[in-house]
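As promised in the previous annual report, we have extended the structural survey to additional targets. Below is the entry for Methylenetetrahydrofolate reductase (NADPH).
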Amino acid sequence: MALLNFRKKVETPAEVIPAVEAFLQDFSIEVMPRTAEKVEDFPDLLPKGTRVYIAHIEGTPIEEMVATAARLNADGYKVMPHFPARIIKDRATLADWIARYQGQADVKQALLLAGGVAAPYGEFSDSMQLMETGLFDAAGFERLHVAGHPEGNRDIDVKGTANVDAALRWKNDFQTRTDAKMAIATQFAFEAKPIIAWADSLRDAGITIPVHIGIAGPAKLQTLIKFAIACGVGPSLKVLQKRAMDVTKLLLPYEPNEIIEQLAAHKAENPDFNISHVHFFPLGGIKTNATWTHAHGGASAVPASAT
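The corresponding structure token record, generated without further manual editing, is:
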């Protein structure tokens, strides 16, 4: 398959697994302004047209977020900044952010989420309140993605998943009653079987929003465990902890081969499986993640797809 929109040609290795290559089509990746600054040339790493999320961490000035979005847009990427509800003080601030992103970076997509801060800065505490303002629709946004948690979210549900499930039902209804194109972009996890069970449970509950599954990119094991604990990764964290106990594997970098291959095989056997895309968290670095993705067929993704 020919590679698309690369400044430098990257050969697809002969050992690429067809199901994995298909599963990696139109993958997305997440960056922060400070990590993006370290990348000299994004088109050397990622196919143009790739969806690039920009994480908005508390304390990051909106000017830095918009500047990163403008750079990525100029390089030919589909830019999707985070809008964390709890750090947006009021409707006027939200309208200002939307106007800046559109005016300076031609942004038409957003990931709406509650955000990791304990106490809201102002009137918003969850993504549903952002959606209810109508400001994204009025600004002509084409896509609104929301967060998903295959292993639950203890910030929302101390036990069980009742509140998270109710929120997803509300968002599914929002998709049904509006023209919004939506997807659920999830937190990363490390076991395929529970992810499959969670995705199937959404389908059984009548939630039709497609899932973009979060996958942690290659990284040092110690780095990955640190991020996993900080991000509240649930039971699948034991996969990393077990690996850390094996001296022969402790110093080897983690790569997501096993989980990707298992999810890809399930998708190949079940074409209507509601996990439609892969979303990478490049915890070991953007270049490292991009190199792994290329080597497994991601370099021949077709970012221009309408999904």
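The mean pLDDT is 87. The beta strands are 28-31, 51-54, 78-84, 109-113, 143-148, 181-188, 211-216, 275-281. These points will be discussed at the next consortium meeting with the crystallography subgroup.
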